[in-house]
Amino acid sequence: MSTILRRRSFAAIALAAAVTLGAAACSGEEPAPGATEQITLNVDVFGNFGYEELYKQYMQEHPNIKIVERGTGSQLDAHNQQLTQRLAAGAGAGDIVALEEGVIISYLDKANLFVDLGEHGAKDLAGNFIPWKFQQGTTADGKILGLGTDVGSMAMCYRTDLFKKAGLPTDRAAVSALWPTWDDYINVGKQFKGKVKDAGFIDAVTNTYNTILMQKAGQGAGYTYFDKSGAMTIDTNPAVKDSYDLAVKILDAGLSAKLQAWSNEWNNGFKQAQFATIACPAWMTGYITSQNGDTGSGKWDIAAAPGGGGNWGGSFLAVPKQTKHAKEAAELVKFLTNPAGQIAAFKSKGNLPSSPQALADAAVKAAVNDYFSKAPTGDIFAKGALDLKPVYLGAKNAPVRTAVENALRTVEQGTKSAADGWKAAVEDGKKAAQ
Amino acid sequence: MLGRLDIKYSPYLYIAPFFVVFGIFGLWPLIYTLRMSLYDWDLGSTVETAKFVGLDNFVMFLKDDDFWNSVVNTLALFLMSTVPQLILALILANALNKRLRGRTLLRMGVLIPNITSVAAVSIVFTQLYSRDFGLINWLLGLVGIDPIEWQAHSWSSWVAISSMVDWRWTGYNALIFLAAMQSIPRDIYESASLDGASSWRQFWTMTVPMLRPTIIFVTIISTIGGLQLYGEPLLFTGGGNPLLGGSDRQSQTVTMFLMEQFYMKFELGRAATVAWLLFIMILVFSVINFLFTRSLRSADGTAKKKKVKR
């Protein structure tokens, strides 16, 4: 009897535990909304957006709203994966989410997952953003998926110590004058390689290729791998083949140090002075500073990018449809991305504004970077961003771009010839678009 | 009355948690995934909005070179990591089975690589295999071999990744072998020694045959692990789009191919299809292993009979 009793009470405990577990799982709901609704808006970001002061100000003006930022300082990849999972699950995403440039483009044909900010007054805000930036966040049929925060812009960072060694000018105005076009850039590279054998002129060709493509597309048809009807144009758009050929020309001239971006070798290349120039969006200055460390201070400078402006990176804020507070979230997005908000973010974390008004602000214009020989970064990058013409990118841009980058990389690594690389780029690009 | 009910039904209650949890997290996802694999299921689709496409997804992947490339990579990695790993583990276990000083310490020691995180192991090995500053290329340089870009080719990334897997799992398998070896009675070794059998001969003609069931078990576990290989190749590839396994998909395994469908293409239905293809692949290998086991067990039985006769 006693053993049975003990066993039964054990079973009861097990059962009770199971029941509590189930109850706990159900108790995560928010209290029912009342008349004077007190709401919390979750903002999911990666890295640092520099919004702390803006949140304080907004909460003071709207006492019923509490803002919680999640994912501060996290990696972009982790942020993207988590967002994909939460969108697939239909729950758990923030009321506002940050979408990086490449990410928002791939969500353009999944616009049903996000609130159309155009329905919340964002249509009148086009003038607040650089035209190409506003267009990136807008679908072909005019839905506004996200509003721009910062841009990467594009310049060319170069090492003054290596330039001196090669007998090239080191002054940034003189260096910019060396390469108005990419062909000039290649010629300077050949001069450089004639004098300096143990360093490349450029880290790797892929990021340069992307810059060239955006410039050529802006000057040409206004699109890259897809036209506005969504048709694949990788083998019909002359901008793509021209950019590919230019990239191959850089490789043929032996300018590449063949250091794949984000690899350990690449990171080491900064420290060991293994390349003289690198395609340089505004945020790259921070990356170079941290990779090259104190020893590199004053050995870098920034010149204009050949061939006109460009952009790499930058983000948007969007509101997933699964939110319960679409209206309030949209209002907060508008507040954070207006010119004043962008200037505040620039002052806090140095994120380059995507608004022409903010780029013209005295504080942005006056910014210099001590590490880069006191280069006027605000001015240089503002110009790079404003010079770029709008380019339409299809929703499948990211996988196609990756396919072409990888084809170029195999040419760079010497496993494929330039012609075979182009064939692979077209083939894999078409396949990636499916 | 209550007591009798208790005796009759409470055993089921005790085993219920496993089956309930398995049902929720094992069986139901399996069925749901099968269903998804038959649809053109995008991110944001629901059962109502997704388009039913039947077996189209399966047919598409069976015709897809990139899928087969990932299968070849997975099988190559599986062979190159499992075979040397099990041989090494056997030799290691045999050594640990001897009377050594500090035996416990050594036995614990071989398990240390296994409790190190995949990320840490991958970072260290990626440094070792680094093109410009890696220890391995430096050693190869000493004998006059040019630096190898380990990530750039299939064969070289297979070598690098399988060495990572071996490093992590050899010790673990050695401990399992060791446990089995200790159940072999000592006296048969003594009599073999008296008969003049060398220790190599003892190992090969006595230890290995008597370990057969354990070898089979370890092989099956390694098969499942090997075919689902993900973390090591992903971290080894590095760079901007590690899920692709490099510029030419040199080191993309099936699991990475699956994740590519989900995270890079947002094709949930196709990801489910790859999951099922992988499941079928593992099933096929398990059946082969099972048939292999049966034939080996009978061989084991006859071996024992012979010994009795002798």
TrEMBL record, chain A:
<dbReference type="InterPro" id="IPR050490">
    <property type="entry name" value="Bact_solute-bd_prot1"/>
</dbReference>
<keyword id="KW-0732">Signal</keyword>
<dbReference type="Pfam" id="PF13416">
    <property type="entry name" value="SBP_bac_8"/>
</dbReference>
<protein>
    <submittedName>
        <fullName>ABC transporter substrate-binding protein</fullName>
    </submittedName>
</protein>
<dbReference type="InterPro" id="IPR006059">
    <property type="entry name" value="SBP"/>
</dbReference>
<feature type="signal peptide">
    <location>
        <begin position="1"/>
        <end position="25"/>
    </location>
</feature>
TrEMBL record, chain B:
<dbReference type="GO" id="GO:0005886">
    <property type="term" value="C:plasma membrane"/>
</dbReference>
<keyword id="KW-1133">Transmembrane helix</keyword>
<feature type="transmembrane region" description="Helical">
    <location>
        <begin position="67"/>
        <end position="93"/>
    </location>
</feature>
<keyword id="KW-0813">Transport</keyword>
<comment type="similarity">
    <text>Belongs to the binding-protein-dependent transport system permease family.</text>
</comment>
<keyword id="KW-0472">Membrane</keyword>
<feature type="domain" description="ABC transmembrane type-1">
    <location>
        <begin position="71"/>
        <end position="289"/>
    </location>
</feature>
<keyword id="KW-0812">Transmembrane</keyword>
<dbReference type="GO" id="GO:0055085">
    <property type="term" value="P:transmembrane transport"/>
</dbReference>
<dbReference type="InterPro" id="IPR035906">
    <property type="entry name" value="MetI-like_sf"/>
</dbReference>
<keyword id="KW-1003">Cell membrane</keyword>
<feature type="transmembrane region" description="Helical">
    <location>
        <begin position="273"/>
        <end position="292"/>
    </location>
</feature>
<dbReference type="InterPro" id="IPR000515">
    <property type="entry name" value="MetI-like"/>
</dbReference>
<dbReference type="Pfam" id="PF00528">
    <property type="entry name" value="BPD_transp_1"/>
</dbReference>
<dbReference type="InterPro" id="IPR051393">
    <property type="entry name" value="ABC_transporter_permease"/>
</dbReference>
<feature type="transmembrane region" description="Helical">
    <location>
        <begin position="12"/>
        <end position="31"/>
    </location>
</feature>
<protein>
    <submittedName>
        <fullName>Sugar ABC transporter permease</fullName>
    </submittedName>
</protein>
<feature type="transmembrane region" description="Helical">
    <location>
        <begin position="210"/>
        <end position="230"/>
    </location>
</feature>
